[in-house]
Amino acid sequence: MNLYEKLADEITQAVRHGVFAAGERIPSVRQASQQHGVSIKTVLHAYALLESRGIVETRPQSGYFVRDAAARSVALEEPRPGRLPAPPTQPVAAAVDVSRLVLSTLRSIRAHDAVPFGSPYPDPSLFPWRRINQYANAIARRHASWNLIDDLPPGNPELIRQIARRYAENGVPVDPGEIIITLGATEAINLSLQAVAKPGDTVAVESPTYYAMLHAIERLGMRAIEVATHPVDGIDIEALARVIAEQKIAACMVMPNFQNPLGFRMPDARKRQLVELLAAQEIPVIENDVYQELYFGETRPSTLKSFDTKGLVLHCASFSKSLTASYRIGWALPGRYRAQVEKLKFLNTLTTPSVPQVAVADYLRQDGYDRHLRHVRKVYRQQASIMMAMVQRFFPEGTRMSTPQGGYVLWVELPERVDSMRLYQAALARSITVGPGMMFSTRNDFRHFIRLNYSYPWTAQTEAALKTLGELVTQMA
């Protein structure tokens, strides 16, 4: 662990244990440098990391202060005062059957002209879809007929080159020959899982986990075992090690960057530790990194792939969350499983449509993707702060929430008496949608949790809807 990461972790623990209270000033850069015997540069790096985690904020001419929501959010997993923690239970592999719940929920969201707090999709108005459509139309006019052979797996060569260049520009060199273009990250995840496990196998996942991961497991007739996941540090590696020691695990599926629904950015030291644990047991890990570009800090986060020395990380990503959702362009970097994934891609869907691939490649080569991303990140960061403040204002005592470090979703724990499915129905009757917590697990652990989407513009209607939601929660509590 770097010195600045160690210092940032120490201050995070101090906030978690109430040493620094919400709104309280932490030591100045010079004071911290003297107290910890490190350079001012190291302290600045640590404080920047704390800002990116949402633990502290800067105030001009005043210094660094603990964010009001941080004292509640960083301890989301801690027992409440007067409540003993539940005894640890042995995780059990379970058959997965969440697709019907998710499908009915998404249909309800689509069928109602409602405030989209429950939507899993980002606000499309932030995306340059008109510009990309212009590229696509120009390509279609130039090529009356397209040679299908050109875009058989692994995909369009220019798009592959642009993706590899994107990684290289962000300090993560990859081999273009490893990249396989897919129909979004969902196909990349499904193909990767199919390549490393078979029906009946057990796959370890985070808890809570993004339901697309559970869909992939369900579709392939596998079983899921959920591993406790920390809202700041990510999957509990020690708990995962115990699971591996006691049960046969075919693969692990995680979202280390801005996990949906918790929103954390797993620290580099924990990423390295996770990769090393799985590599020692020769267990492949599927890394869902669809939110990699939507970070709130100064630098793009590292990936599990960057710590992989044995080809066991199958890295999956897409442009659906950062550039355009309508074209569904994703990719996989499957490591030692590349040949299997390429074959499965050919057998499953033959190709990914050509025109969208070339249109996205043209945009990446000729337009301001970085400028677009800077704007999106700024909007999401601002709207995350607004929604957290409004939840704190309108929701009842006993409500707690995560602190997203990127992405566009907020995970909210409601008072225990609140049933999120009842809340979902009551809110929908008032043209408000939420993501009920039961969608993110095979168990009933998250019955009183909801996921909220903050990517859409904050308006008077949005604020009124969140206030109404808070009133419903208060009534149910």
UniProtKB/TrEMBL annotation:
GO molecular-function terms, A-Z: DNA binding; DNA-binding transcription factor activity; pyridoxal phosphate binding; transaminase activity
Keyword Ribonucleoprotein carried by entry: no
Pfam families: Aminotran_1_2, GntR
SUPFAM superfamilies on file: PLP-dependent transferases (SSF53383), Winged helix' DNA-binding domain (SSF46785)
Keywords for the protein's UniProt record, in alphabetical order: Aminotransferase, DNA-binding, Pyridoxal phosphate, Transcription, Transcription regulation, Transferase
Gene3D superfamilies the UniProt entry points to: Aspartate Aminotransferase, domain 1, Type I PLP-dependent aspartate aminotransferase-like (Major domain), Winged helix-like DNA-binding domain superfamily/Winged helix DNA-binding domain
Record bears the keyword DNA-binding: yes
Domain HTH gntR-type: 1-69
PROSITE patterns: HTH_GNTR
Family membership noted in the UniProt record: In the C-terminal section; belongs to the class-I pyridoxal-phosphate-dependent aminotransferase family.
PANTHER family: HTH-TYPE TRANSCRIPTIONAL REGULATORY PROTEIN GABR (PTHR46577), TRANSCRIPTIONAL REGULATORY PROTEIN (PTHR46577:SF2)
Name of the protein this chain belongs to: Uncharacterized HTH-type transcriptional regulator YdcR
Organism: Paraburkholderia dioscoreae
Gene: ydcR
